Amino acid sequence: MRRPKLPGLRTVAGRVLALSALALVALGVLVAVLTAGAGHARDGLQALGHREGPMVVATSDMYLALSDMDAHVTNVLLTGGEDGWLCDPEDAAAACERSGERQAYDIRREDAQRAALQAALLARDEPGRQQTVQSVLDGLHTYDQHVRAAMEAGRRRAAPTAALPPDGVRQYRAATELMTRDLLPKAYNLTLDGAADVDTAYRDEHAAVGAGRYLVLGAGIALLAALGALQVYLARRFRRLLSLPLAAALVGALVLTVSGASLMATEADHLRAAKTAGFDPVLTLTRARAIGKGLDTDRARQLLDPDQADRYDQMYLEKSQTILYISGATSLAAYYRELDERLAGTKRTVDFGGFYGTRARTAADTRALLDSYRKYQDHDRTVRTLAESGQRAAAVRAHLDPRWTPLPHPVFRAHDQELDARISHHDFLRTRRVADGDRAVEPWDWLPPIAALALAALIAAGVWPRLSEYR
Questions:
Q1: Is 234 helix (H, G, I), strand (E, B) or coil?
Q2: Which of 19, 65, 66, 288 is paired with 107 by a 20 to 30 Å CA distance?
Q3: What backbone torsions phi and psi does residue 55 show, to the nearest 5 degrees?
Q4: What are phi and psi of 362, to 5 degrees?
C-alpha cells in the first residue's frame, strides 16, 4: 500500500499550503507577543498599584507616623499636659480624661505598627529586613517606656510650663536619641528597600512593554506580508481578483497589529506616569513632610531642653538643608538670609537644591509651597529670637497655636497642609493611571486568542476552495 505524498513546493497546492502555514505561524507569533506584552503590562500595573507599590507607600507613612509621635510627646512636655497623657480610662479610681494629644499619639503609633507589618510582608524572603522591622517594633516599646518616664517626671513640676526635672530631661533625651538615631533611620531604610523593589519591577516591566510594541509591529508586518503574498499568489494563479475571506483576514490582521502596538504604547505611558508622576513624588513629599514635622519638633526641643540647644539647632539646620538646600549657609542666620533672597517673589531662577529645588525644576505648582515654607522659617526666626532674649514663656506661646494649645502654630500647619495636598494629588494620579491601565489591558486576556481563531478561520476559508480543486 502506497502512502499518500504531501504536495511539494513545486505544485500549486504545495505553495498555497506553504504560504498559508507561513501566515498561521506569523499569526501565532503575533498572538504570543501580544499576550506576553499584555502580561508584562499587567504585572507592572500590579506592582505599582496593587502589590508592592501601595505597601511601600504605606511603609513610607511609618516615617511620618514616627515623626508625628515625637512631635506630640515634645509639645505635651512643653505645655504640661502630662496628667491627660498618663490618664488610664480603664482605671475607675483615676477619674480623669485622656487628652487628645495622647489619643492622636496612640493612633499614629498604630499607623506605625501597621506600616511595619506592611514592610514585613514586603521583606518576607529577606531575613535582614525582617530583623529591621522587628527592631523597629521593639524600639517603639522602649520609646514608650522613656516617654512614660518623662511624663511621670514632668507631672511633678511646680508649674505646667516650668522646666523639666533632671530625671525627666534625661528620659526625654533618651527618647529623642532612640527616635532620631535609630527608629527614624531604620524606617527610612525600610522604605528605600521597598522602593528599590518597585523600581526593579518597574524597569523590567516597562522595558518589556516598550520592546513588546516593536515585537508586535514586527510580527504584524510579517503576518500582513504572508497574507498579502497568499492573496497575490491566489489572484495570479487562479485569475481571481480578490478573495474576500483573505481580504477580511488582512484587515483583521492590520487592526490587531495597530491596536496591539497602540496598547503597548499606552500601557508604557500608564506605567511611566504611575511611577514618575505618582509613586516617586508620593515617597519624596512624604519624607519632606516628615522632615518638616521634625523641624518643628527640633525647635520645641530647644525650648524644652535648653542645655542642648546648640545640638538641636544643628539638627534643625540639617533638616532645613535637606528640604531646601542653600550652598554655603552654615548657620541658621545665613540660611534665613539666603532663603529670603532665593525665594524673593520677583526671582525666577531656581538656585537652590534639596527636595524643593528638585520639585521647583520639575513641577509648575511650587510657588505656594515655597511661600509657605518661607513663612514658616520667618516664624521660626521670631520664636528663636524670643528664646535667645530669655523670654522662654513667650517663645513657647509663639511656637504653638495661640488658641488651641498644644497644636502646632498655624504657619506650620499651613506648610504641612500644602505638602499633604500634593501627596494626595500624586497618590490620586498613581491610582488613576493604574486603573486606566487595568481597564485598557483587561480585554487582552481573551481578545488575542479569539482574534487568532477568527483570522485562522478566514485564512482557511480563503484557501480551502482553491485546494479542493486539486482533490
A1: helix
A2: 288
A3: -70, -40
A4: -115, -10
Please check the confidence at residue 460 and state whether its pLDDT lies above 90. no
User: Is the pLDDT higher at 167 or at 233?
Assistant: 167
In a 3-state reduction of DSSP, which class is residue 165?
A: coil
Report the chain's mean pLDDT, rounded to a whole number.
89
3-state class of 446 per DSSP? Answer: coil
Count the neighbouring beta carbons within 10 Å of the beta carbon of residue 32. 14
DSSP 288-336: HHHHHHHHHHHHHHHHH-GGGHHHHHHHHHHHHHHHSB-TT--SHHHHH
**Whole-angstrom Cα distance, residue 377 to residue 28?**
64
The H or E element spanning position 247 is helix 244-273
CA dihedral 170, 172, 175, 181 (to 10 degrees): -80
Of 313, 280, 311, nearest to 299 (Cα)? Answer: 313
Residue found by looking up cell 486606566 in the block: 436
Cβ burial of 227 (10 Å; 0-12, 13-18, 19+) is buried
- What average pLDDT does the segment 282-286 reach? 94
280: its cell numbers: 516617586
Cell representation of residue 152: 511621670
- The HSE-up count of residue 76 (CA atoms within 13 Å, CB side) is 30
Percent of the chain whose pLDDT exceeds 70: 93
pLDDT digits (tens, 9 = 90+) for 115-153: 888 888 877 778 888 898 899 999 999 999 999 999 999
DSSP 275: I
- Which of the four pLDDT bands, split at 50, 70 and 90, describes residue 288? very high
- pLDDT, tens digit, 9 for 90 and up, residues 296-344: 999 999 999 999 999 999 999 999 999 999 999 999 999 999 999 888 7
Rounded (10°) CA dihedral 222, 227, 228, 230: 130
What is the dihedral sign for C-alpha 407, 286, 290, 418?
negative
**What is the rounded distance in angstroms from the CA atom of residue 245 to the CA atom of residue 231?**
10
